[in-house]
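Section 5.1 Outputs to date
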Amino acid sequence: MKSWDPFRDLVSIQDRMNKLFEALLTGPVPLDEQTALGQWQPPVEVIELPDRIEIRCDLAGMRRDQIDLNWDGTALTLSGERQRPDLAGDWTWHRVERSWGRFRRRFELPEGFAGDRATDRLESGVLTVVVPRDAGAVRLEAEASVSVDH
């Protein structure tokens, strides 16, 4: 289990604030921070089962070829880009609750899971990534945690 580092979180917040102010000064007033930065974070669930970890990610309106899944030896990275709707004609936004643009989520897995053998499926707007437990790994009864970087 990784220990919490408040300074890393502080640096991350500072970086996000810098990007937000840069976006504010160089363009129109954004509807929200994520859209202004061209970034958003799709909601996820991370579930550990006896033989695997499942990562479920809401990606409504996306095709599988718009989503990248990479394993670097310690973490799975899920990234992609949802395109902004191309609206023709005369229109006005009345409410914007959906996000678009680039996204990136990184999931550090506990030891004993084979990220290089992860499989995935996109069904009804939900991407499910299944990471099997290594054949020789023993599940500990103590709580395991999965670290999620935003």
